[in-house]
Amino acid sequence: MSEILQISIVSVLQVILALGLINVWIVRFHHSTQYRGAGAESMEQEFHAYGLPTWFMYIVGGIKLSIAVLLIVGLWFSFLVDASVILLGILMIGAIVMHVKIHDSLVRTLPAIAMLLMVVIVVVLIRFI
After folding, report:
1. 54 neighbors 108 (Cβ within 8 angstroms)
2. How far apart are the first and last CA of the chain?
3. Cα–Cα distance between 126 and 129 in angstroms, integer?
4. How far apart are CA 36 and CA 121, in angstroms?
5. pLDDT tens per residue, range 47-67
6. I need a surface site. Which of 4, 16, 20, 22 has the fewest CB within 10 A?
7. Number of structural domains the chain divides into
8. Is the pTM of this model over 0.90?
């Protein structure tokens, strides 16, 4: 695979990951979706379904939105991408564990799995650029 293609794939995945985080944590924060854990109507209800406190939701959200910003800025400053996607990968593993913990369906878990897969692809491609 050419270096230009690798860089292009990484850049596209950075944008997809960043926009996905912004969509979940800003646009749909107070809205019901088919992917919310335990069928929760909002992010706060979802975190409570996982047995997590509200303050933890705000910390996770702040971290994820910071990662989104770093991924976008990383389009120009690539040194920011590696640590950002690794941290996002850790958070996505945590999200998958929470879905499994409450016996959510695969459909509700798919966004976290998809994001983790994109993170893995970015990490692998960064290592070979």
Report:
1. no
2. 10
3. 5
4. 25
5. 999 999 999 999 999 999 999
6. 4
7. 1
8. yes
